[in-house]
Each structure stands twice: as structure tokens, then as C-alpha cells.
Write a structure and sequence with these properties.
This protein is of the alpha+beta class. Helix content is about 30%, strand content about 20%.
């Protein structure tokens, strides 16, 4: 096994394009979130979220099943699904990124212990899947549609790459390489099996393993898997991304997470190979997804059944699926597209998804989770519990989402900034230090901001090429109605180009740029083809989507009407929900006459009037909205994002 030895300037994050990659941008080399909103959320993840992992994996049986496979335990296999190993691997990845950020002896010991257990469970030829090793299935690779063997392998590989990049230790990487070699010997043209896993994941992991080891066959195997989808090998189901080849797709379809993981791999392959057809497919599918199948929160998935995207503009509220894992996968895909193309729109969606559809998936205390993220919970909702509950849950039978949240939060700094030969780009706004190479010259900036509560972003140049001008690019978010910028205390022209505010000059260390983004609350409405929210508005402020909760609006939410002509008032509440800014709106409650047993009435119109169809308007207090990510942290109850205006 040969490993590349990255220089100190090579970024150590989850996505590291190779030296010959055809990306417009490269991830920042220096990436350190040091304060503000995201530091606080990451500290909860580091203090509570990640450390609880081993105990929860023990109680759910994941570690017991690994000990069974390793011959270190007796008893019954406890896992309910063939993909239980992946929860362990995702936790290892999260813990590894955290160790790269701050060494923790207790966490390091847990990682070492569980890594040794994974290695002990691996079979001599490299194969590893406790479900099949326990005899739960018919045999290796006999159920590619549902077996998840390569899916689990993908998460193992990503954990191993994270561990190696963060610590330099090769123990987990050697396990992953043995498994990858076993897969490479088994799948492909003129190999024992011509097929692919029904849940994409191994594809993008193999690309990253190629980047880490320099072994070209891993890249070739990833390309083989991506292109075998869509040819009916698994029954031609959209659920498995097998209905149509990705290169021919016109819109995203099927299981949302599977589609997005496959697209992330296609973007990686386009970056490493220069495959223009794959790049065009990624751009086409991202654009169609955003235009027709994305909720206002950035959430994805309309159907509980098969965790499916649904049809164009089929974006329900109380039945919205919006799996937390789909939000994570959207960020992964979007970041690869941002690097590939340099376009700000991809980072716009990342921002929206991070602050809303993703962050709602974990409680403020880091101990409870949401698998699905609805946009409405009705008055009197009866919750049956389980993984698809609208109530925050300690853990799940299918616990894919919690460790997915852990690993993204632990590696979040690597999605903030990038560089190219001519400058440095800030994609997200988080207090910290970010830098990289502009060609062969280092550059770095320090960012200070109270974003998303304040729109002021201060960027101080710490170093840069002394012999030439270079460009500092600041993203102006799509939602922002106005902005201004100053350099060294002097206002400068602030026109944005395709979402980027590009400031080119011969920078001097210590010079400060101040960007002011308009953060005024606003009302937004959906495309009229979204039937579920026609006649409704949602409240936004900065990157945050807001919602009404029953705890703030006594009397129920089903009869609430928002007056769009009234003012929107913002107020800081440092004591509420960890410190938030609330927004209040004018509104009232409608009361429909109820003088019969039938709830449907003839509408009033030019040819017919019926006093019974005329609602009464009962004046009430102003409607109070809180950030969507913070809902369900005080008490269970009603919630809604979209509010009727009549």
C-alpha cells in the first residue's frame, strides 16, 4: 500500500481534490472556526454529541455485533438492519475530525478501542459486514439491493481517511484499504460480479481513497459503479437509482439520500477526470432539484414511503420528509459543485441547508434528534413515535442521522473557504481564520462576525502575496436585498458578480474589510405550483427560516392568519433557546361557522352568497416566530413554517 504524503499546505478536510483535479477552487488549507454561532454548535457536538456515541452504539447492539464477528462475544445478533456497521463508521469519522481539531485523550482512547474492534471483525480477505458474517443473509453480495455491504464499506473508508488526515495513524486506513481491495477484486468488468450497491456511498469514498493513497484503481472502480446505475441491474427502480443512467437524468428522483450521494460521487469524478458529461449532468440535476423539489428550509424529500423526492413541486408541509441525512448529503454535493464551478449559488444552498434543514436535526443540548423534519405539526397531532416521529428522539432503530450530524459538525470548518491562483473566497460566514495558497504564495484572513444574528462581517487580512494584487471574494447571499462594503474605512463599489463581491488590490497585512448585509425580516412565498402552500407566506431573517410554535402562540396554530401588510418586528432574546432573535408579525385567528355535521361549504361568489361560508376574524396578539432550527426544544406541540394570509 502506497500513501501520498501531503505537504503542510494540503487541506485535511473531507474533500481534497487531487493535484490534477479540474476544480475552479480548492478547499482552504487553514480552516479554524474560533467563535460565534457555529463554534457554539460545534462545542455542543464535541462536548455532548460525539462523546455519547460509544454508549449509544453499545446500547443499540452495534458494538456487540462487531464483537460477535470478531469472536470476542457470545449471544444473539442484535442489529435490526444490515447497515448497522455504518453507524459505527460514521461515529469514527466524526470522532476523527474532532481529534484533528482538538486532542482529547478519552475520545482518542475510544477511537483506538473501536478501531481495534473493527479490525478484529474484518475477515482475512478484507470483507467486513457483521450482518452477513452472522449469517443473517443468504451470503456475501447476494442482496445488492438491500444488503448495504458497499454502503457500509464507503462509510468505513471515509472514517479511515478522516482518521489518517487528522491523526496520521494508519490503523483504520489499512482496514479500509483491505476492504477496498476485496471489493475491487470482486466487482467490475470481467470480475465475479457485475453490479453495484442499491445505496450509493462507496463511490465517493473510493474517490477520496484514491486521493489519499494515489491508487488509480480506486478511482476507476468508483467510475464503474457510478455508470452501472440506471441499467436495470437491481430491477430498474428509482429507489435504488437504477431507473435511468445518471448521465441521462433530467431531474432528481427516488430515495433522496441515495440520489445525492451518487451525485456527490459524480461531481468528484468530474473533478478528477474532467468528464464534461458528468459535470453537465450534475449541474442539470442540481438546478432541477432546487427549482422543483427543495423546501424553503433546504430540506429534501416529499414522501415517507421510500424516503422519496416526489414529483416536481410536490412539497407538503406536515408530511414533508426532509430526512436529516438528505440535508447532510445536499451539503456534500453542493460543496463539490462549488469547488468544481466556483459559482456562489451552490454555497447559497449550503448556507440555507446548514442553518435550517440540517441544524433542526439535533436538539440544542445535543442529546435528541429528528430523523424527519416536517414544516408543520398540527394542533392535536397524535405522534406514534418511532424513527419518523415529529418529536425529538434519543436514538433510532435506524440511527443513520445522528452520527451523520456529528461528522458534518465536526468537519464544518472545511466548508467555509476556498482559494484559487488569484485569491481567497469566503463561502460561509463564521468567526475564525482561513487561508491557503494563491499559486505558491500563502494568504490568510481572520473573520469576526455575529452572523446570523448580525449582518456585519469583519475580515482582516493577515497575510498574502506581497509582490502582486490578489482578490478577496465575499459571497453576497441570494436572500440579501442590499449590502455595502468598506476597505480600510473607505466605502468601495459593492456590485456583486454572480453572487461574489470581488475585491482586488495589493493587500497589506492588517487591512480590514467590513461587509454589511441587510438582515431585515422578510416574507417569502413559494412558486404557485406548490399547491401545499398556495396563499401562504414564510418568515425569514438573514439565512434563517422562522416558524411559529404553539408554546409562543397559545390557542393553536391551525386557525392563525398572518397579515402581510403589517410590520415585522425583530427582538433579541439572549435568554431564549440559547440566544435567538425572534420576529413578530401582525395576525389574527379565523373562526369558521360550525352549524352542521359537514365541514365543506359552498364558496361565496357572484352567483351565490351564503353567510355560513364567511369566516369571522378574531383579533389576537401578534404572532411570534422563532428560528426553525430551534423548534421542539421546549415542549412538544404545534408548529408551522408556512402561514396563510387569508
Amino acid at each position: 500500500m502506497s500513501h501520498s504524503n501531503p505537504s503542510p499546505h494540503v487541506p485535511a478536510g473531507p474533500v481534497r481534490p487531487g493535484p490534477g483535479a479540474r476544480t475552479v477552487l480548492r478547499p482552504a488549507v487553514t480552516a479554524d472556526i474560533r467563535g460565534g454561532f457555529w463554534r457554539d454548535r460545534r462545542e455542543v457536538n464535541a462536548r455532548v454529541g460525539i462523546p455519547q456515541g460509544p454508549e449509544l452504539l453499545e446500547s443499540a447492539g452495534n458494538l456487540h455485533d462487531l464483537r460477535l464477528a470478531a469472536g470476542k462475544a457470545e449471544g444473539e445478533f442484535r442489529g435490526d438492519y444490515p447497515f448497522m456497521d455504518s453507524d459505527v463508521h460514521k461515529w469514527l469519522e466524526a470522532a476523527s475530525w474532532q481529534l484533528g481539531h482538538a486532542h482529547d485523550p478519552a475520545l482518542a482512547a475510544d477511537v483506538e478501542r473501536i478501531t481495534a474492534l473493527v479490525a478484529a471483525a474484518q475477515q482475512p480477505d478484507g470483507y467486513l459486514n457483521t450482518w452477513f458474517q452472522a449469517g443473517k443473509g443468504a451470503g456475501r453480495y447476494t442482496d445488492l439491493r438491500w444488503g448495504h455491504e458497499l454502503y457500509c464499506a464507503g462509510h468505513l473508508i471515509q472514517a479511515a481517511v478522516a482518521h489518517h488526515r487528522s491523526t496520521g495513524d494508519k490503523a483504520l486506513l489499512e482496514v479500509a484499504v483491505r476492504f477496498a481491495d476485496q471489493i475491487d477484486a470482486t466487482f467490475g468488468p470481467d470480475k465475479p460480479i457485475d453490479g453495484f450497491d442499491g445505496h450509493p456511498e462507496v463511490e465517493t469514498a473510493l474517490v477520496e481513497l484514491y486521493r489519499e493513497t494515489g491508487e488509480r484503481r480506486y478511482l476507476d472502480l468508483a467510475a464503474y459503479f457510478v455508470d452501472r446505475h440506471g441499467h436495470g441491474l437491481l430491477g430498474g427502480e428509482a429507489y435504488c437509482q437504477d431507473r435511468v443512467p445518471l448521465r441521462e437524468q433530467e431531474n432528481v428522483e427516488g430515495h433522496a439520500v441515495r440520489q445525492l450521494y451518487l451525485l456527490a460521487a459524480a461531481a468528484d469524478l468530474a473533478a478528477e477526470t474532467g468528464d464534461g458529461e458528468l459535470l453537465a449532468a450534475c449541474e442539470r440535476l442540481w438546478t432541477a432539484m432546487v427549482a422543483t423539489k427543495t423546501h424553503v428550509t433546504g430540506g429534501l424529500g416529499a414522501h415517507h414511503d421510500e424516503e422519496d423526492f416526489g414529483d416536481p413541486f410536490e412539497l407538503p408541509n406536515e408530511r414533508a420528509y426532509c430526512e436529516t441525512c438528505a440535508a447532510v448529503a445536499s451539503v456534500h454535493f453542493g460543496w463539490r459543485m462549488a469547488l468544481l464551478t466556483g459559482r456562489a449559488r451552490y454555497s447559497d444552498l449550503i448556507e440555507r441547508t446548514l442553518f435550517n434543514g440540517f441544524l433542526a436535526g439535533v436538539s440544542l443540548d445535543g442529546e435528541r434528534w429528528l430523523y424527519v423534519n416536517p414544516l408543520q405539526v398540527r394542533d392535536g397531532h397524535t405522534d406514534t413515535g418511532g424513527d419518523q416521529s415529529a418529536r425529538r428522539t434519543r436514538w433510532f432503530r435506524c440511527a443513520c442521522c445522528p452520527p451523520n450530524v456529528m461528522r458534518l459538525l465536526a468537519s464544518l470548518e472545511h466548508y467555509v473557504a476556498s482559494t484559487d491562483a488569484g485569491g481567497l473566497q469566503l463561502h460561509q460566514y463564521a468567526t475564525g481564520r482561513y487561508g491557503g495558497l494563491l499559486g505558491d504564495a500563502p494568504a490568510a484572513v481572520r473573520v469576526e462576525t455575529d452572523f446570523p444574528w448580525s449582518g456585519t462581517v469583519r475580515v482582516t487580512v493577515e497575510e498574502g502575496p506581497a509582490d502582486r494584487p490578489w482578490t478577496l471574494s465575499l459571497r453576497v447571499p441570494q436572500w440579501c436585498a442590499g449590502h455595502r462594503v468598506s476597505v480600510a474605512g473607505q466605502d468601495v463599489p459593492a456590485a456583486a458578480d454572480d453572487g461574489w463581491l470581488r475585491l482586488e488590490r495589493a493587500w497589506t497585512a492588517g487591512e480590514e474589510v467590513v461587509l454589511e448585509l441587510d438582515m431585515a425580516p422578510r416574507l417569502v412565498e413559494a412558486d404557485p405550483r406548490v399547491d401545499a402552500v398556495r396563499g401562504c407566506v414564510a418568515i425569514e431573517r438573514g439565512p434563517l427560516v422562522y416558524c411559529l410554535e404553539g408554546v409562543d402562540n397559545p390557542g393553536g396554530l391551525d386557525d392563525v392568519v398572518l397579515d402581510p401588510t403589517g410590520p415585522l418586528t425583530e427582538e433579541e432574546h439572549p435568554e431564549l433557546l440559547g440566544g435567538v432573535t425572534t420576529v413578530t408579525a401582525a395576525g389574527y385567528r379565523r373562526t369558521l361557522p360550525n352549524d352542521g355535521w359537514w365541514p365543506y361549504r359552498t364558496t361565496a361568489g357572484p352567483a351565490h352568497t351564503d353567510a355560513r361560508s364567511t369566516p369571522r376574524h378574531d383579533a389576537g396578539p401578534a404572532l411570534t416566530a422563532v428560528p426553525y432550527y430551534s423548534w421542539a426544544n421546549r415542549e412538544d406541540g404545534a408548529m408551522r413554517v408556512w402561514v396563510p394570509t387569508s
